Amino acid sequence: MRRLLFPAMIAILLLVAGCAHYQVNEQSREFDRETGYRFDALDPGPGNTDSLFVCLMFSGGGTRASALSYGIMKALKETAIIVDGEEKSLLDEVDCISSVSGGSFTAAYYGLFRENLFLDFRPEFLERNIQGMLAARLFNPGNWFRLASPYFSRIDMAAELYNREIFKDARFSQLEHNGRPLVTLNATNLGTERRFEFTQEYFDAMGSRLDSYPVSRAVAASSAFPYLLTPISLRNYPVAPGYTEPWWYMGALEPEDWTARRYNAARNLGVYLDEGNKYIHLMDGGLSDNIGARAVLDAYDRGFIRTRINQGAIDKLVLIVVNARTKSVDAISAGEKPPGFFTVAAKTATVAMDNYSYDSVAGLREELYSRVQSQKDEQACIELLSGHCPDAPRPVAFAAGVDPYVIEINFEAAALIPDEDPRYYLDLPTSFKLTAEQVDRLVNIGPKLLKASPQFKCLLKVLNAETQGLPRPEDCPIGSGIFP
Amino acid sequence: MAKEYLVVLFPHKRRVKINSQFMGHTNTKLELEGGRYEVTLGPPKNFTPESIEIDLKNTASLMPMTVEFERLEE
Question: Which of A28, A142, A200, A299 is 20 to 30 A away from residue B59, measured at CA?
Answer without folding.
Answer: A299
